[in-house]
Amino acid sequence: MYDIEPVFYQHVVKLIRSIPEGKVATYGQIAEYAGNPRAARQVSYILHSSSEKENLPWQRVINSKGRISMKRGRGYELQKTLLEDEGIVFDEEDGIDLKRFLWQPYSGSR
């Protein structure tokens, strides 16, 4: 378990809630915008432990390679389906084009 500072936690939750439908963010991106660029694993922990409680759009957070981090059979298919339902397109190798779908909260690309 991680010792997560309340302010960081609140920033992460706010950022994840802000990811618009049809866009994705990376764990590292959320960590950086929340004030700790080295805390991608803490972002993952917050998603895992608080998505339901905080009503987070957890499916919109992926890894820096543009891929779903979960292994197949452990929610992978659900996350992919939810993203596809939002208009996210996967390539033949199940990757997401980050140039097209990455959320840029401070550049007006909502």
TrEMBL record:
Record keywords: DNA damage
InterPro entries recorded: ATL_DNA_repair, MethylDNA_cys_MeTrfase_DNA-bd, MethylDNA_cys_MeTrfase_DNAb, WH-like_DNA-bd_sf
Alphabetized SUPFAM superfamilies for the sequence: Methylated DNA-protein cysteine methyltransferase, C-terminal domain
Domain called Methylated-DNA-[protein]-cysteine S-methyltransferase DNA binding: residue spans: 8-88
Key word DNA-binding present: no
Domain of life: Bacteria
GO biological process entries: DNA repair
Stored Gene3D superfamilies: Winged helix-like DNA-binding domain superfamily/Winged helix DNA-binding domain
Gene Ontology MF term list: catalytic activity
Listed name of the protein: Methylated-DNA-[protein]-cysteine S-methyltransferase DNA binding domain-containing protein
